[in-house]
Amino acid sequence: MFLDRSWVRARLELMSSYAEGVKEVKRRGRSAFESDPLIRMAAERGLHMSIECLIDSCNHIIDGYAMRDPASYQDILQIMMEEGIFDRSFGESFLPVADLRRLLAKDYDRLTPERVWDAVEKYADAFDEARRSLEKFLG
């Protein structure tokens, strides 16, 4: 498969726009998050779409460079570490977003506001580092 760098960059740009929404939720603070259902929904959607854009970008890179086939969403991020695209420290701290994706996309009935807020605090800025790593790899 051919790696379409412009496709990946477009997904990374979209990821950043969703991540900006997550950062805005974080800036507004926990009390606003807890008191306003629209802010909670914005956090959920922003996290979900940021993760989807990231996973899609990474998977496209894996296919484009004929890296090993991932067995799961978490494995996609693991491959990014194995290939040196994400450094080990960042990658290990970022792996749980794959599980968060499942909660946001499939198991949303088990998603709690506490889990969403924890993810906002932990990952709001992490998407920037993921993008920098992927952009550096793409050259």
Notes on the structure:
Helices cover 78% and strands 0% of the residues. The protein is mainly alpha-helical. The chain has one domain: bsu32300-like (Four Helix Bundle (Hemerythrin (Met), subunit A), Up-down Bundle), CATH 1.20.120. Helix 1 packs antiparallel against helix 8 and helix 3 (37-64) runs parallel beside helix 8. The longest helix is centred in the middle third of the chain and has 28 residues, at 37-64. 30% of the residues are buried. Keywords: Hydrolase, Nuclease, Toxin-antitoxin system. It comes from Kyrpidia spormannii. GO terms for molecular function: hydrolase activity; RNA nuclease activity. Belongs to the HepT RNase toxin family.
CATH class: Mainly Alpha
Taken in chain order, the helices and strands follow as HHHHHHHH
Q: How far apart lie the N and C ends?
A: 18 Å
Q: Give the tally of structural domains.
A: 1
Would you count the extended β strands for me?
A: 0
What is the level-2 CATH architecture name? Up-down Bundle
Strand content bin: under 5%
Main sheet attributes: strand count, strand direction, barrel closure: none
CATH homologous superfamily label: bsu32300-like
Task: Determine the number of helices (DSSP H or I, runs of at least 4 residues).
Answer: 8
Protein name: DUF86 domain-containing protein
InterPro entries: HepT-like, HepT-like_sf, Type_VII_TA_RNase
Organism: Kyrpidia spormannii
GO cellular component, one term: toxin-antitoxin complex
